[in-house]
Amino acid sequence: KGESDNRNQQKMEMKVWDPDNPLTDRQIDQFLVVARAVGTFARALDCSSSIRQPSLHMSAAAASRDITLFHAMDTLQRNGYDLAKAMATLVPQGGPVLCRDEMEEWSASEAMLFEEALEKYGKDFNDIRQDFLPWKSLASIVQFYYMWKTTDRYIQQVR
After folding, report:
1. What is the CATH number of domain 23-100?
2. CATH 1.10.10.60 region(s) of the chain?
3. Which of 56, 107, 126, 128 is deepest in the core (most CB within 10 A)?
4. Can you give the residue ranges of the ELM2 domain (predicted)?
């Protein structure tokens, strides 16, 4: 207190969640349920999502992944933990907000190419990109790999 802060504020970390917020755990959990429901509904309305997520069950599973929950928590924080404002942000005038992660941005054929490349090259992501998926960025391939490792398909391949 009383000292000037000469640090470059542009390089400082930004607080993205306040654990001392006024909401109860139950209210936060209820908001996350609503955010997942909005994510499922947004996928039902989005033509490109219905191609990738052909069933309601798959859409709901996609809406339950981390990207939806991170967006919901960020929405709460940005709206000062005001549930009404946060809800309005999830469903603005133009329709529900759709948040996609790397798993949803890849088609089934791209995922199969990735698996084939992984079998051939292991975790040499540069070679995977160069020979199998040149239209994908290296960051996208690496991110997809770590998400793919959490899928049932990966577990089946390990067995």
Report:
1. 4.10.1240.50
2. 104-158
3. 128
4. 1-94
Rounded to whole angstroms, the Cα distance separating 19 from 2 reads 26
Residue range 81-90: average pLDDT? 93
> What does the buried/exposed string (b/e) look like for 145-154 if buried means 16 or more CB atoms within 10 Å of the residue's CB?
bebbeeeeee
Q: What is the CA radius of gyration of the chain?
A: 20
Within the chain, residue ranges assigned H as helices are: 25-45, 47-52, 56-63, 66-78, 83-90, 102-105, 108-121, 125-131, 138-148, 152-158
Q: What is the pTM of this model?
A: 0.56
Q: Answer for the pair 117, 128: CB distance below 8 angstroms, yes or no.
A: yes
Distances from the Cα of 46 to the Cα of 5, 59, 95, 144, angstroms: 47, 11, 10, 22
**Where residue 51 falls among pLDDT bands split at 50, 70, 90?**
very low
